[in-house]
Write a structure and sequence with these properties.
Layout lengths: L3 E2 L5 E3 L2 E8 L4 H6 L4 E4 L3 E8 L2 H13 L4 E7 L6
């Protein structure tokens, strides 16, 4: 993913991994809508896991989900390991 850099090579924005869970178990057609995400089917829920470059990308993904009429029940930022 792209990172925004400032002079001197330090990154201002690091990509973040998110998990978004909605009600219902996504079938093949719905999973195809999210081929850019890891899709995990649970008991009565579906969780999308993806790395996004910024909050604008998160907003875009949420708009896609809402546009499909899906009921989001959780959005989580997944803790990342410290970079060395």
């Amino acid at each position: 993913m792209n990172q925004i850099e400032r002079p001197g090579g330090r990154n201002l924005v690091q990509p973040q991994t998110y998990e978004i869970t909605f009600l219902g178990q996504a079938g093949t057609t719905l999973r195809a809508e999210f081929e850019d995400c890891e899709v995990v089917i649970g008991r009565g829920t579906t969780t999308l896991r993806t790395e996004l470059p910024d909050r604008g990308a998160l907003s875009g993904l949420m708009e896609r989900i809402n546009g499909l009429g899906l009921d989001v029940i959780d959005v989580s930022l997944v803790a990342s390991l410290p970079r060395r």
